[in-house]
Amino acid sequence: MANVEHGGPVTGRVSVARVGLWLIAGVLAVRQLVVVLSTPRGERLTDLETWIGPNGVLHVKGSLYDAPDRFTGTPFAGLVLKPLSRAAEQALGWGWTFGSLALVVVLGLVAARALPQPVSRRTALFAAPVAISLLMLSLPVRNAFTLGQTSIIPVLLVLLGCFAVRGEQTSGVLIGVAAALQPTVLLFAPLLWFTGRRRAAVSSGVTFAAATALAWAAMPHDSWTYWVHHLAGAGLSTDPSANANQSLHGMLLRFGLEGPLEIGLFLLLGVAVAALGLRRAVTYARDGQLLLAVAVTGCVAVAVSPTTWQHQLLWVLLAVVGRVGRRASDRYMWPVLVVLALTLPSKMLLPNMPVVEPIADNVVLIAALAAACVVPFLSRTSPLYRTPIATDYAAPVPARWARVPLVPVWRRVVSRPNLILELLLIRVGYSAYQQVRLAATGGTNAGGRATAEAHGRQIHSIEQFLHIDIERWVNHAVVDHATWLKDFFNFYYTSFHFVVPLAVLGFMYVRRPAEYRWGRSALGFATLLALVGFWAYPLAPPRLMPNLGFIDTVHGVQDFSQPDYGTLTHLTNQYAAMPSLHFGWSLWCGIMIVVLARRWWVKALGLVHPLCTVSAIVATGNHWVLDAVGGATVVALGFLVTYALQGPRVRTPAMPSSRPPETASPVPDPDDAPAESPRP
After folding, report:
1. Nearest of 78, 23, 13 to residue 52 by alpha carbon
2. Which of 268, 327, 465, 663 is the most buried (most CB within 10 A)?
3. Are the C-beta atoms of residues 391 and 414 closer than 8 Å to each other?
4. Cα 254 to Cα 244: distance, rounded to the nearest angstrom
5. What does the alpha-carbon distance between residue 469 and residue 462 come to, in Å, rounded to a whole number?
6. Is residue 118 part of a domain?
7. Are residues 501 and 631 in the same domain?
8. Cα distance between residue 258 and residue 382, in whole Å
9. Is 181 inside any structural domain?
């Protein structure tokens, strides 16, 4: 601890990291402002324009809920927003955008100060910029900025009421105002009551009733329409079955349920979720984890509200503060799941398969229900809360060069990584790869096609010079004289590209976890380098080169003015051919099998796979020979980068039978000393 207190190297690194995190938060904030302010006027702050613009709902003298673009907030929200309709449109747009940004920053600061105590010094320093960055990246905040929504305000009012203000009455007033803007926030009153803050609970209920009565007195017809005719706004949305409605009501409608059965089931499930979730929230609040209790209660509000649109889902992000898992390697699973669910579209998290559509359509709701009712968050009294079961690290392995590893803090773990995290990493990484690969060369538009065909002629000329232009001969030999071989190569090309790498990764994960991390890193770096190749050198494969006489054995005869390769025509970039990852991934599989296998015939089978793959990509007309050379190059560079960053690979050690796995206690980190925390 001495070097921390006296400005030693640890303090210097922490200070640099903290400045870097604040810079990241600032860049994300500026980016959010630029995105909103650079959007065409008709496409930004659309909800705000609908309410307050020159022809907005709040200018209408009749009912707020009878206009074609009807208001969806509470009557009290309409009463609060009506004075803004007199502001100049341009000034209001700028003020709303910068005001929303300020609210997000305050929200992040309050959430960081409210972390369950004690927290490490490092966590206390890093919490605020990390919280603000996560908020800026989240879909709820991005939607609230783009639409001009008020959904950030209730969340901030609740956090201020629970953690910032003094006095229970003031706390209750803030939460009551939040409930008047978003009725399900009234669920925080029972949380306050059962945690001993009864005056705050009563104050929140009285404030909610007073605000609602005020709106009723000012707008009796609208209040009747909202609270009685539409059952607290349940029927105001145009399409409550849309995927954007992440509530139990929306989920049941998407499942095809309607009428009294759906309403009854929604009420039954809502009561059950509310009872179980509030009970858990009270438990966590009494345990000293009030921010987690607030997050759980907010997740209950998300689930039981008739409509919970994307901009109202910020409560779920606050649930990252809960600690889950016995092992240190599992500790990141829950936060990563929540952050990915709140920042990425569901199609990036799950494959595009009908069997997983019910999950993909309700990803955020599932996260909210899990936080409210299922996830076993650790109690602060548990010895695992601050000291989870330690991760096993390998001893350093001497490298050939003194400067290797370049990243010495990248310690090599010998135990298995968390399976859920690995599956998410693979899926999200592959989704990002698909998106970049598709965008790298402009798709199949005329400009991208002309460039790709020009590069195809270059590759063909180079191969002719080197006397390795065997693609057309192999392609026609297979088609004209060996139909069975053509069918085999077609099947091999379309099937084994994913099956074999996944099988190798699965085997290494189960039997060779240390080698798994090493091999997975090499494969990831090779794929990233391949993306650079796709971007820098778009290339038409032989089958899409006019006048060269290649036969597309997989997709059939092509119209080169409008190439068609089946249902993937608009989803893939067929000009991302250099380097060939078909061959690159197969070569990676062969290397891993040769390195890890103990029997000679298994090693031989490992070499057969890249040989069959290179034969298939050439015979089917999908790649040039030099594409395979490019694939081999990026794989070699992937292993080289992995070696340079983390050093030589570490072999999975044999676990002594007398020592139960993963029972070691962690060594306390001097930087993890509790920090003096401000009053929540």
Report:
1. 78
2. 327
3. no
4. 11
5. 9
6. yes
7. yes
8. 45
9. yes
Same domain, 226 and 117: yes
Kindly state whether residues 77 and 158 are assigned to the same domain. yes
pLDDT over 80 at 120, yes or no:
no
Per-residue exposure over 537-555, b if at least 16 CB sit within 10 Å of its own CB, e if not? bbbbbbbbbeebebbbbbb
pLDDT at 607: 92
Q: Does residue 340 surpass a pLDDT of 70?
A: yes
Q: How confident is the model at residue 442 (pLDDT cuts 50, 70, 90)?
A: low
SS3 state of residue 393: strand
Element at 437 (helix H, strand E): helix 419-440
What is the predicted pLDDT for the residue at 397?
Answer: 75
Residue 550: name the closest of 643, 596, 608, 617 by CA. 617
Same-domain status, 548 and 445:
yes
Q: What is the pLDDT of residues 576-616, one digit of tens each?
A: 788 998 999 999 999 999 998 888 899 998 999 999 999 99
Helices of type H across 344-418: 346-349, 357-360, 363-369
Rounded CA gap, 578 and 571, in Å? 18
Given a cut of 50, whether residue 679 has pLDDT beyond it is no
182, burial (CB in 10 Å: exposed 0-12, middle 13-18, buried 19+): buried
Residues 128 and 215 in one domain: yes
Cite the DSSP H helix spans in 114-187.
121-137, 139-147, 152-159, 168-181
Name residue, tokens 């009012």: 157
Please tell me whether residues 500 and 629 are part of one structural domain.
Answer: yes
CA 73 to mean position of chain CA atoms: 29
Per residue in 269-320, pLDDT (tens digit) is 999 999 999 999 999 999 999 999 999 999 999 999 988 998 999 999 999 9
Q: How many domains does the chain have?
A: 2
Answering whether pTM is above 0.85, one says no
| Residue after which a domain boundary falls, among 308, 342, 374 | 374
Beta bridge partners of 389: 327
Q: What is the pLDDT of residues 566-575, one digit of tens each?
A: 444 444 567 7
* pLDDT digits 0-9 by tens, 12-67: 777 888 888 899 999 999 999 998 888 887 788 888 888 887 777 887 777 788 76
137-152 in b/e burial notation, b at 16+ Cβ within 10 A?
Answer: bbbbbbbbbbbbbbbb
**Is 474 in a helix, a strand, or coil?**
helix
The more confident residue out of 674 and 433 is 433
Cα dist from 430 to 353, 426, 498, 637, whole Å: 15, 6, 11, 19
Burial status of residue 473 (CB atoms within 10 A of its CB: 0-12, 13-18, 19 or more): exposed
User: Model confidence over 213-232: pLDDT tens digits?
Assistant: 999 998 888 888 888 877 77
Domain enclosing residue 31, as ranges: 2-374
The two structure tokens encoding residue 289:
């984890």
- For residue 236, give the amino acid letter: L
In this predicted structure, the answer to whether residue 669 has a pLDDT above a threshold of 70 is: no
The count of other CB atoms within 10 Å of the CB of residue 261 is: 10
Q: Are residues 329 and 450 in the same domain?
A: no
Alpha-helical (H) ranges within 138-258 are: 139-147, 152-159, 168-181, 188-194, 198-218, 220-224, 248-254
Cβ atoms of 512 and 596 closer than 8 Å:
yes
Torsion of CA 609, 611, 613, 618, to 10 degrees: -170
Same domain, yes or no, for 465 and 565? yes
Split at pLDDT 50, 70, 90, the class of 671 is very low
Structure tokens at 403: 């400067």
With respect to residue 379, please indicate whether it lies within any of the assigned structural domains.
no
408 is written with which tokens? 């010495």
Question: 610 near 583, Cβ under 8 Å?
Answer: yes
